[in-house]
User: What shape does this take?
Amino acid sequence: PYRRTTDTNSCILCGKGRGRMANPRDKCVCTSMTHCAQCHADDKNSGLDKKKSIRREYKCRIHGAFREYTEYLLSLRNWCMVWVTMSILPLTVLLYMAQLSLGWVYLFMGVLVGSAVVPITLCMFWGRLTGTAMIAGSVVGMVLALATWLGVAATYEGGLSNFLDNTGKELSMLCGNLVAILSGGIITIVVSFITNRHYESGQAAEIWENTRDIDSPLSPWTEVYAKELNLSGAHQLDNRPSLQEVAATFRFARLMANIGSVTLALTMIVLWPALMVAIETMTRSQFTGWVNLSIAWAVIAMIFVVIVPLVNEAYDLFVAWKVRHKISCEEEGLVTLHHTSHMEPQREPRVHGHSHSHVNMRTPTPKVFDSVAMKTTDSGDGVKDEVIIPPDGGDTSSFALDKPINNDHSNTEPDMALETNGTLGNHVDSMGSGSEPVF
Assistant: This one.
């Protein structure tokens, strides 16, 4: 929607090529919003603007249009949240009037969306997966799950005429959820092999590169993980590490994610139901222990779902504030140093007691000739220039003075010592001749 004529290998900001297939002569050189001076100026101006109801206009030539587009999407998101919330409220009232319990709705959601679990999981790990296979597995799996769910419910007394009671039974919901998950996965894998028969192993790397191209040009993922990846220049949109480097950096995180997912799956699917089956009829003490275990599980889940994200978000806000405060302090220090350097009087270097503002003491030491001859030239505006004439007839353009030498002898300051690479011979010490050797 933002830029109609673009592809995955083109920068969404400037339209130039980027990544592995970009032409070096016409390659993207865009940077992120964090290192853009114009974006910082826009942020300061927006902070000074008190009219929050007026739509912001960003003047940055690189990120301005995309920032306006992003804010437009955020406004749409907020309105969508409002309308969805307003739609959920009457839907909840209708479910209550229909005497549907929350457990029935929760289990029925598994029948509807369970077929999409395996396709979504495979899209993150399997390079051979195709879009056709994902759609086929999700849709056909949902149809089979609904048919199984209704078929099992019809076997109970009263059939589908006693709809809520029979469809809400555990066996009906269990069969519907299992068929949704299993059929969705099997159909997705089979259709992927059929529709992508000419798959080569080298295509997996290109598929991963297309996935890595999905990025925000305002805050790229390389800038977010610059510390973990040990990147320099992460604010440049085209500066991205290879897939092998990313995999090596996050190998431990990937290992922990795999171990955690397998452990939770075995606990919820195998261990917990096995314990319930082995107990059969609980005694009072066993039931008390089961209730306490359920409460502990719920409390731990609440901590990880509610409290940990809040703490993590607060820490991220603190780090962002600290970095921003550090940057603002550095900018204020640079501004103060700049004003101080302009306010302090500059001492002019003196050579042989005479002030020469044109002498740059940081320039390399000039060449010193054994014998020095001077020539006076008239530039036409009444100012006479003193030029050194070396004995070998070399170039003396760099030694021409743009101002006449001040021969005022009233200054009694001591001579400044100058370091030279040669030895000055036949030094012209007479000040009454109207000329002085220039270094």
User: Anything to note?
Assistant: Residues 351-373, 391-439 have pLDDT under 50 and may be disordered. Residues 45 and 354 are 50 Å apart (CA to CA). The chain is about 55% helix and 5% strand. Residues 283-344 form one domain.
